[in-house]
Design brief:
Layout: E1 3-5, H1 13-16, E2 27-31, E3 39-42, H2 45-50, E4 53-54, E5 61-69, H3 77-80, E6 88-91, E7 99-110, H4 117-134, E8 147-148, E9 162-165, H5 173-177, H6 182-185, H7 199-221, H8 226-242, H9 260-277, H10 280-312
Antiparallel strand pairs: 1-9, 2-3, 2-4, 4-8, 5-7, 6-7, 6-9
Length: 315
């Protein structure tokens, strides 16, 4: 049964025993306010009650999907959008504005070295679909931004948040996907893709790998080894990440650049894969196969056109 707790009830037993506190990382980034530098603290009751802002996802792991709603009635935006209730939400006390809605995942999604492409694209599509339905801020991501801390008990200059407690449930990605038009929001492979939320990881990965397939030939030609190649890929990843937010060439982001650690993992993954799976002999074989397929396709097209002309001429 859902319920909303105002600041007067923020110290209630329901807040102190909220079960999702165990779904947080062991150590998390907390902030005194949105502009303050983060501090790393254990997610114990003392820290959770003290700090008004928290980053609910640890590095390289997505345990929560989060959405930032900047309008009146923020805590109930999910109901207006026809979406399932979040586990928790927290908003400003006055008029229930500027709130964060959080959905915990049953199985966390990796975004680091061990990340797999398909689960991340799946997550990005679901996040995009929910964001669109909610009308949420496209610049917000639960992995790169701090959320309002629903366990915060309040202090003299800042009362506790108005808090929503949802059903005691974690979500599988498949369950969440049923609520949105998934194909419409799936990140497209290639250069012209959406660079918002977790879609930025997919975008950087795609751009970097397409560049790497050709750039490795220059390293071979110069006689470079794996160290030179790895540095080259990391430098290019930093350059591409710096372009996030720039308009042009289909490379545009409302979320801004990825964090340093996220870029590192994407670059490491691409560099390792391309170096392990490409070599001059294999690359030449791939090129020959591509040319053969292109020649066969052209021959089939020419034959089809010849047959069409012959039929039209009555021959």
């Amino acid at each position: 049964m859902r319920h909303i707790i105002d600041q007067l009830d923020a110290s209630s037993e329901q807040v102190e025993l909220f079960p999702y506190a165990g779904h947080l990382p062991r150590r998390a980034q907390f902030r005194e306010d949105k502009g303050a530098p983060p501090v790393i603290r254990r997610c114990n009751p003392r820290s959770l009650r003290r700090y008004p802002y928290i980053k609910v996802n640890p590095p390289s792991l997505v345990m929560w999907m989060g959405f930032d709603i900047d309008r009146n009635g923020a805590l109930m935006a999910w109901e207006e959008a026809g979406l399932p209730p979040p586990a928790v939400g927290a908003s400003n006390v006055v008029e229930n504005t500027r709130g964060h809605l959080l959905y915990p995942l049953t199985a966390p999604v990796l975004t680091g070295d061990a990340a797999r492409d398909k689960p991340l694209r799946y997550l990005a599509a679901i996040e995009s679909g929910f964001r669109s339905r909610l009308g949420a801020d496209p610049q917000f991501s639960a992995s790169t931004h701090s959320s309002k801390n629903p366990w915060f008990k309040g202090k003299d200059d800042l009362p506790a948040w108005r808090t929503y407690w949802g059903p005691d449930k974690t979500w599988d990605l498949g369950e969440l996907a049923e609520w949105v038009d998934l194909p419409k929001h799936m990140p497209r492979r290639g250069l012209k893709v959406e660079n918002i939320g977790y879609g930025r990881n997919c975008s950087l990965f795609d751009r970097l790998r397409l560049w790497a397939y050709h750039a490795i030939r220059r390293v071979w030609a110069a006689g470079g080894g794996v160290q030179e190649w790895t540095k080259t890929v990391h430098d290019k990843a930093d350059e591409m990440n710096g372009d996030l937010g720039e308009v042009g060439g289909g490379w545009h982001s409302l979320s801004g650049p990825l964090g340093t650690l996220e870029v590192y993992h994407v670059a490491k993954h691409v560099a390792k894969y391309v170096w392990a799976n490409f070599d001059p002999v294999a690359f030449s074989a791939i090129q020959r196969a591509r040319r053969a397929r292109a020649d066969n396709a052209q021959k089939a097209k020419d034959l089809e056109q010849w047959l069409l002309n012959t039929k039209q001429n009555g021959r």
